């Protein structure tokens, strides 16, 4: 009886938390759009940096737990790679639901910078993974050199995006009834709430995996990847409903870039050579995420009004790439 009660309570808490994430995420998108207008930084930068970082905290929370508590760096990195893949699926899901025009044909060219940054960072992670299997990678101040390079790429990349967006910004007067300080403080408060909810959501996801027995199989890893991407899903859908497609797409690419940057913190928390302990199987997920991001890049360069039933040509490729990668990972991990 106690076991049934415990399972029911975990699921009830999960539903409550998910509903709160939806509520807070919708307001986070709104005030993110306000800040994009008031600050002059643009929707691409706000979505990629501020919102992208705020919605990526579940991955960091679950990953650090795996690295510190159970000494399982492969589990942590698997969650990051799975989240990067599912984040890209969010673009396809939005395109399927909001079919006025293909999503990626609605964004500005600045998105190419954030997409390129995420690919460069995933490429650096893949390079570090292969290199560490053959040579001893030196470290500095508790982290191996690839982790420092990843952090440097992240900081420089978003500095370049900020400079570009300021040069391209066109003043709007959509939110004259709100002051800049009101938007900043409300966004900061909502971000803190979202971070708390995200961490809670991640731990509830782990709890559900355990009480259902999913933690011992591939379904558990897939479930956790989807659960930890719920904030990105909610924020991106809400942003599109607000007419802020750049905010939605920037959130996806920014979250993926931040996810890769999180690997540096895993390295810092792990006692020992972090990169050499990782499985080469992660290369499959990383290269697939890079390829799918390449598809989205092409869709931004060569947009079409519609392909089939109003969706962009890239949507079936994104979904197909994700499903094939998931199937291959399932086979290679032995279920």
Descriptive account of the structure:
The protein has 335 residues and is an all-alpha fold. The protein has one domain: Up-down Bundle (A middle domain of Talin 1), CATH 1.20.1420. The protein contains twelve helices and two strands. A two-stranded antiparallel ribbon has the order 1-2. β1 and β2 (143-144) form a beta hairpin. The longest helix is centred in the N-terminal third of the chain and has 38 residues, at 2-39. The protein starts with a helix and ends with a helix. The mean pLDDT is 79.
Average residue-wise pLDDT: 79
Oligomer: single chain
Strand order of the largest sheet: 1-2
Contiguous runs where pLDDT drops below 50 for at least 5 residues: none
Present the secondary structure layout.
Elements: H1 2-39, H2 42-54, H3 57-68, H4 73-97, H5 111-134, E1 139-140, E2 143-144, H6 145-168, H7 180-212, H8 218-228, H9 230-241, H10 245-269, H11 282-301, H12 314-332
Antiparallel strand pairs: 1-2
Helix pairs in contact: 1-2, 1-7, 1-9, 2-6, 2-10, 3-4, 3-7, 3-10, 4-8, 4-9, 4-10, 4-11, 4-12, 5-6, 5-10, 5-11, 6-10, 7-8, 9-10, 11-12
Structural key phrases:
single chain; 335 residues; mainly alpha; A middle domain of Talin 1; globular
């Amino acid at each position: 009886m106690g076991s049934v009660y415990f399972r029911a309570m975990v699921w009830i808490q999960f539903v409550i938390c998910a509903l709160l994430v939806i509520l807070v995420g919708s307001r986070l998108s709104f005030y993110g759009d306000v800040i994009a207008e008031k600050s002059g930084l643009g929707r691409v930068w706000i979505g990629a940096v501020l919102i992208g970082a705020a919605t990526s905290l579940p991955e960091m929370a679950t990953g650090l737990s795996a690295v510190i508590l159970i000494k399982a760096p492969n589990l942590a990195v698997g969650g990051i790679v799975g989240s990067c893949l599912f984040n890209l699926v969010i673009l396809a899901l939005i395109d399927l639901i909001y079919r006025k025009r293909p999503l990626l044909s609605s964004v500005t060219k600045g998105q190419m910078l954030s997409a390129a940054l995420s690919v460069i960072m995933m490429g650096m992670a893949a390079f570090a993974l292969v290199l560490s299997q053959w040579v001893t990678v030196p470290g500095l101040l508790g982290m191996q050199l690839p982790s420092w390079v990843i952090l440097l790429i992240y900081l420089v990349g978003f500095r370049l995006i900020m400079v570009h967006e300021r040069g391209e910004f066109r003043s709007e007067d959509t939110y004259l009834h709100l002051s800049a300080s009101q938007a900043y403080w409300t966004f900061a408060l909502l971000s803190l709430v979202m971070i708390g909810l995200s961490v809670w959501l991640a731990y509830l996801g782990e709890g559900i995996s355990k009480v259902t027995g999913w933690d011992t199989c591939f379904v558990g890893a897939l479930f956790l990847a989807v659960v930890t991407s719920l904030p990105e899903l909610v924020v991106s859908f809400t942003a599109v409903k607000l007419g802020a497609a750049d905010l939605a797409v920037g959130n996806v690419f920014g979250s993926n870039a931040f996810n890769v940057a999180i690997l540096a913190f895993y390295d810092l928390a792990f006692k020992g050579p972090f990169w050499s302990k990782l499985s080469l199987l992660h290369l499959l997920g990383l290269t697939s995420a890079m390829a799918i991001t390449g598809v989205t890049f092409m869709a931004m360069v060569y947009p079409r009004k519609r392909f089939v039933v109003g969706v962009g040509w890239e949507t079936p490729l994104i979904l197909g790439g994700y499903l094939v990668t998931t199937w291959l990972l399932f086979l290679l991990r032995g279920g």
